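[Help] Beginner question about ligand-bound structures

Sorry if this is basic. My supervisor gave me a protein sequence and a SMILES string for pyridoxal-5'-phosphate and asked me to "get the holo structure". I don't really know what that means in practice or what format the answer should be in. Inputs are pasted below exactly as I got them.
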Amino acid sequence: MFEKEINFIKSLFPDKKSIALHEPVFKGNEKAYVAETIDSTFVSSVGEFVTRFESMLCEATGAKYAVATVNGTSALHSALLLSGVKNGDLVITQSLTFVATANAIAYCGAEPLFIDIDEDALGLSSSALLIFLEENTTTKDGQCFHNDSGRKISACVPMHTFGHPCRIDEIVNICSEYFIPVIEDAAEALGSFYKEKSAGTFGSMGVLSFNGNKIVTCGGGGAIITDDENIAVLAKHMTTTAKKPHKYEFFHDMTGFNYRMPNLNAALGCAQLEKLSDFVLNKRQLAEIYMDFFKGSGFSFIREPENSRSNYWLCSVLVSDKNIRNAFLDFAHESGVMVRPVWEPMHTLPMYGKCPRGNLPITEKIAARLINLPSGVRL
Ligand SMILES: *Cc1c(COP(=O)(O)O)cnc(C)c1O
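Answer (accepted):
No worries, everyone starts somewhere. Holo just means with the ligand present. The predicted complex, written as structure tokens, is below.
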């Protein structure tokens, strides 16, 4: 039934027996840098590759500061705590996201409050956000409270889905009217730009991930990026067990975390970041090829939204309904082609099913019909 589509996808990755959704490519200095780290014995959380990695991130994103962490989830967790998210608070995010976004909120003892996404960009909808805040919240003494529960809304975490930037400038403006700090979950969006500015640099903090399936990888890794020096200093402190610098004394002034990225991972990451712009070009080219192929078919390819330059981390198409989606997923998997539905929306998961939410019509519509296509860098 879908032979034509599957054969086409196979033709794009000719040297592979089975085609992964997103495979890392290590054709640069990865082995050299990792070997150098091993030879130096500085494999753990102190070492020159960690600081080099952080400055390369600043260069790639235009952020003033970057703090590297063990993964994206720990970066999100730290960023939320640094924003002042407390036990019992609410944190706005989208339901259509990877579970880490909601988990990080829960780690703070807070609860996610789910708002719908935009149909074109697939990220948090600025218009749905504004309507929700107007109808359901009250501001008092520079804070925003949810009317139904009386709880404070202490942060907003929009996510740039599949690398496509959401309307982040509007979201930041709306949130500032309501005294809500914005943390961008830019885990999928390194190398993406909105109105010529890097994803992750609009809010008070941005969070990146370097997991094995992301556009560049450290094996595992994450980072907080920010332009605020105080936040950067605190972020580093909090993620390094809150130890006061001293030659030999162990004094910690708060409950910190062991979230610092090891040098071994940063070495891999530095070599990967050297290839970031090549990878983005390669993936944008693949997006063009898919776009041409699916033109006029029953598959509608999701293009980068207006005013943006997407890294096209994962290419995706929409089909007309869930049955067709499932038939395509089954056929592709039998043919050795790894395609994927989007994540189950967070409000349908057992642990987040009772969280407060706005109306989510676009989330439900997209969740049933979206398919991610193999999107790795092609050699
Ligand atoms: C990958 C990802 C994360 C978490 O990153 P890890 O490095 O896997 O912890 C968070 N949010 C989104 C949207 C992601 O895609």
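A couple of things worth pointing out: The chain has two domains: 3-22+276-346+357-372, 30-275. The mean pLDDT is 97. Feel free to follow up in the thread.
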